[in-house]
């Protein structure tokens, strides 16, 4: 058997047996600015990995959502990155958990997992 033919005969069964590649994460960018997150709502799919990039345009902002396991902080100089795979459909309200001024209490956004 020729070397190239032998290599193909060995490699093809190995490629066929390789596990399926996990889905690439979807990237969502969220901008925090006194006193709002933009966008205010993001739709995700259960089981789909997502990479969230949180950028701040002014001061330090927190980004917290217990059920999705999100607890991050972004400054104007340093964005935060969170990677997660939401498991369960639902509406998940995320809040700023670092006091950022008088409108801080209303700084929220929602992940809708379908």
Automatic annotation (TrEMBL):
Which keywords accompany this UniProt record?
Copper, Metal-binding, Signal
Localization terms from the record? Cell envelope
Q: In the record, which residues are listed under signal peptide?
A: 1-22
- Keyword field contains Glycoprotein: no
List residues of the Cytochrome oxidase subunit II copper A binding domain.
Answer: 23-114
Is the keyword Metal-binding assigned to this protein?
yes
**Where does the protein principally reside?**
other
Q: Which domain of life is it from?
A: Bacteria
Q: Which InterPro entries match?
A: CcO_II-like_C, Copper_CuA, Cupredoxin, EfeO_Cupredoxin, NosZ/Cyto_c_oxidase_sub2
Query: Which segments cross the bilayer?
Result: none
Protein known as: Cytochrome oxidase subunit II copper A binding domain-containing protein
The species this protein belongs to is: Anaeromyxobacter paludicola
């Amino acid at each position: 058997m020729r070397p190239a033919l032998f290599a193909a005969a060995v490699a093809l069964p190995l490629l066929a047996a390789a596990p399926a590649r996990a889905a690439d994460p979807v990237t969502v960018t969220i901008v925090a600015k006194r006193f709002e997150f933009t966008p205010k709502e993001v739709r995700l799919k259960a089981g789909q990995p997502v990479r969230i990039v949180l950028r701040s345009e002014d001061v330090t902002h927190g980004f917290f959502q217990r059920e999705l396991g999100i607890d991050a902080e972004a400054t104007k100089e340093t964005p935060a990155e969170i990677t997660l795979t939401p498991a369960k459909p639902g509406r998940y309200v995320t809040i700023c958990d670092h006091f950022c001024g008088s409108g801080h209490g209303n700084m929220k956004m929602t992940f809708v997992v379908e």
